[in-house]
Amino acid sequence: MKNFQIIRALSSRTAVTNISKEKEAMFIAGGTNLVDLMKKNVVAPDKLIDINGLDLKKIEFLKGKVSIGALAKNSQVAEDATIKEKHPLLSLALAAGASQQIRHMATVGGNMLQKTRCSYYYNTDMPCNKRTPKSGCGAIGGSNRMHAVFGASDSCIAVHPSDMCIALAALDAQVLVEGPKGKRQIKFTDFHRLPGNTPEKDNNLEAKELITAIEIPDHNFTKNIHYLKVRDRTSYAFALVSVAAALDLKNNVIKDVRLAMGGVAHKPWRLTEAEEFLKGKTVSEEIFRQAGDLAMKGARTYGGNDFKITLGANTITEALIIAASK
Amino acid sequence: MASKKNNPKEVTENDSNSRRDFIKKSGLFTALAFTPPSLVMASENKWDEKIAEYLETVPLSIEVNGKKHNLNIEPRTTLLDLLREQLQLTGTKKGCDHGQCGACTVHVNGTRILSCLTLASMQQNAQVTTIEGLSNGKKLHPMQEAFIKHDGFQCGYCTPGQIMSGIACIKEGHANSREEIREYMSGNICRCGAYHNIVDAITEVKEGGKEL
Ligand SMILES: Cc1cc2nc3c(=O)[nH]c(=O)nc-3n(C[C@H](O)[C@H](O)[C@H](O)COP(=O)(O)OP(=O)(O)OC[C@H]3O[C@@H](n4cnc5c(N)ncnc54)[C@H](O)[C@@H]3O)c2cc1C
Ligand code: FES
Ligand code: FES
């Protein structure tokens, strides 16, 4: 790892001012992704701004919403009693990610900005448009078992790896950020982006902006919910595909529904068409199967990941069945 | 525990002027360059490197197994390398060095974390416990005893991490069933496959109900 300077920020404002002065500076929170990438020389900042001293760790239940500080740890959020009660989908998704040691270190903001796990991105001897623009995409025509089936481009077929973000996309969260130009809010589903021909940009956060919190509006998805993650081993592995399913049922009729998918795109993938299809219908396995098939309709595969179409449809169906039976 | 903010030696944004910039701007090396004999001597003794090395370090106060250390470290030093290379505490193991195996698990301020992904420079005033800090004199920690009794290892390489993680698993309240133990111990890989016996050991310690 290249040596670098490290300084500890004392407030959000000064963290932002400080980072704005430097070209090759980066924030560091839990470090579980950044330190890994620095060891592999995939990123090599000259300066790190340690934001762990900032007052952004609180989970606050406000009128009509919960606000979760960007520095709240993944385990802290997953195990918070009120989060479990009011936002169980988020708790389940967080608990399905990484290991308990990593969840104790990882923060909400860092989780959102974690880089793809595409092996070409991680290997500096390989071409990768995300890491080195215009070097090509190794995964297209290469090893692409883990890769995208929705919204990919000729430049990049990498997927966003987070579990937490799939639940946050389903729950219509908002992202609060602070930058050199002031504060703003971004809709969670607009936060991450598709690769297009600029895959080096994972999201719509502007350079030097700091995530300060996420907010989730209150909702009725507290009972019939499930996060189903399919992976190569039962725990401590990234998703092949995952589904966040939330149903608001009355007498077995679907009043409202949210569906989002992980492991299939460059961003958390909301299944809006399937949601619309399910609204107003009566719960049945057949209906859930139809929703699964409908959701996978526009998928495009790349050889190694052909299995994701069937696996995706089955996972959606299964997640909905489990959610409805709770 | 002392608040991180109160450490006078800590480098915060207020005194962020780079040490490296300082060397560049101070003209230290330029000065040396004007005196050829000293330049020769300096390069023979690698002074420039030594000075740069010293100036590129940051001060760190850290407590490991109850012992306080005041050190100067490079910002890039991981907690794992600090423990093993600088403090000679080699009980904590380096398996993958990338967060994928759990061999480097230690407790920082009472929480289990991966020391390979933790920058030591971010652990100002932290209290660290490693496998070396568990026993009470010659008396082993109950988890260490349980691992021996249940044969919770074969080669032993993952064991320090497993033991540190196992203790935390119980303290966190995640050892209520074999399934729960397996899930919350999944961050500790054992290539020898001693999982069954590891779960036995943790279960016994949990059921023993001793304060850990
Ligand atoms: C072995 C392993 C397995 C894993 N498995 C999973 C898994 O199954 N599911 C899953 O979801 N994740 C998994 N992860 C990833 C893990 O969740 C992320 O590494 C973690 O969430 C990142 O958070 P952090 O605080 O450590 O971020 P850091 O590493 O500190 O930072 C990550 C990035 O975010 C930036 N950043 C951090 N905070 C802010 C902020 N507030 N504002 C602006 N920028 C910021 C940093 O500059 C950096 O670019 C795994 C990681 C490892 C090592
Ligand atoms: S050495 Fe840290 S997780 Fe493997
Ligand atoms: S005992 Fe050999 S790796 Fe676990």
TrEMBL record, chain A:
Annotated Gene3D superfamilies: 3.30.465.10, CO dehydrogenase flavoprotein, C-terminal domain (3.30.390.50), Uridine Diphospho-n-acetylenolpyruvylglucosamine Reductase, domain 2 (3.30.43.10)
Listed GO MF terms: FAD binding; oxidoreductase activity
Keyword Flavoprotein tagged: yes
Superkingdom in the source lineage: Bacteria
Keywords for this protein: FAD, Flavoprotein
Pfam families in the record: CO_deh_flav_C, FAD_binding_5
Residue ranges of every copy of the FAD-binding PCMH-type domain listed in the record: 1-221
Name of the protein in its database record: Xanthine dehydrogenase YagS FAD-binding subunit
Organism classification: Bacteria, Pseudomonadati, Bacteroidota, Flavobacteriia, Flavobacteriales
TrEMBL record, chain B:
InterPro entries linked: 2Fe-2S-bd, 2Fe-2S-bd_dom_sf, 2Fe-2S_ferredoxin-like_sf, 2Fe-2S_ferredoxin-type, 2Fe2S_fd_BS, Aldehyde_Oxdr_Iron-Sulfur, Beta-grasp_dom_sf, TAT_signal
Membrane-crossing residue ranges in chain numbering: none
GO MF entries: 2 iron, 2 sulfur cluster binding; metal ion binding; oxidoreductase activity, acting on the aldehyde or oxo group of donors
Swiss-Prot/TrEMBL keywords: 2Fe-2S, Iron, Iron-sulfur, Metal-binding, Oxidoreductase
Domain 2Fe-2S ferredoxin-type residues, every copy: 58-134
Domain of life: Bacteria
Name of this protein: Xanthine dehydrogenase YagT iron-sulfur-binding subunit
Organism of this sequence: Flavobacterium phragmitis
